[in-house]
Design brief:
The chain is of the alpha+beta class and 164 residues long. The protein has one domain: Immunoglobulin-like (Sandwich), CATH 2.60.40. It has four helices and eight strands. Strands 1-6-5-4 form a four-stranded mixed β-sheet, with helices on one face. A four-stranded antiparallel β-sheet has the order 2-3-8-7. The radius of gyration is 27 Å and the shape is elongated. The N and C termini lie far apart (71 Å).
């Protein structure tokens, strides 16, 4: 099983695109994979997995997501009856069954899938929660920043501290 994780591995790194690093690791991994696939980044939040599925019918392919793992499987299809009557002079197109798995980050959602020119295209979208989005922090001057905070009250002015 080929597994590629899209979740952050290096929680202490700041300012690095960890998803991009993980894609690079998957691409340069020496483990052979069948069928060949690409993991592509289109913009800041759009990703795509393209799997070479030439010769596979749509009915022979299955895509599911369970526990943040995207699994793509392909079977041999219904053409096994032709195998007995065909003599191959050269057989270069492999149509063996396969299973590819990709571990998805908690912010990655599968948008859809389609067959296009012998490729199975799976579109992914990174949805950044509001609390993780970049925001502008206003800068206030010295003492004013401390006195403007509503949770900061002077304890010396309260009646119980005045009698003590």
């Amino acid at each position: 099983m080929n597994t590629m994780t899209l979740s952050p591995l290096f929680r202490r790194s700041i300012g690095f695109d960890r998803l991009n690093d993980l894609f690079e690791q998957a691409i340069h991994n020496d483990v052979p994979s069948y069928p060949p696939y690409n993991v592509e980044k289109h913009g800041d939040n759009d990703y795509r997995i393209a799997v070479a599925t030439a010769g596979f019918a749509e009915e022979a392919l299955d895509i599911n997501v369970e526990n943040r793992v995207l699994t793509i499987t392909g079977g041999r299809g219904d053409n096994n009856s032709d195998e007995a009557t065909v003599t191959y002079l050269h057989r270069g197109i492999s149509r063996r069954a396969f299973r590819l798995s990709f571990r998805l980050d908690e912010n990655i959602e599968v948008q859809g899938a389609r067959l296009e020119n012998g490729l199975l295209i799976v579109d992914l979208l990174r949805v950044v929660p509001e609390q993780q989005r970049a925001r502008q922090i206003p800068i206030q001057s010295g003492q004013r920043a401390l006195t403007d905070r509503p949770d900061q009250t002077s304890h010396a002015k309260t009646p119980e501290h005045a009698t003590a």
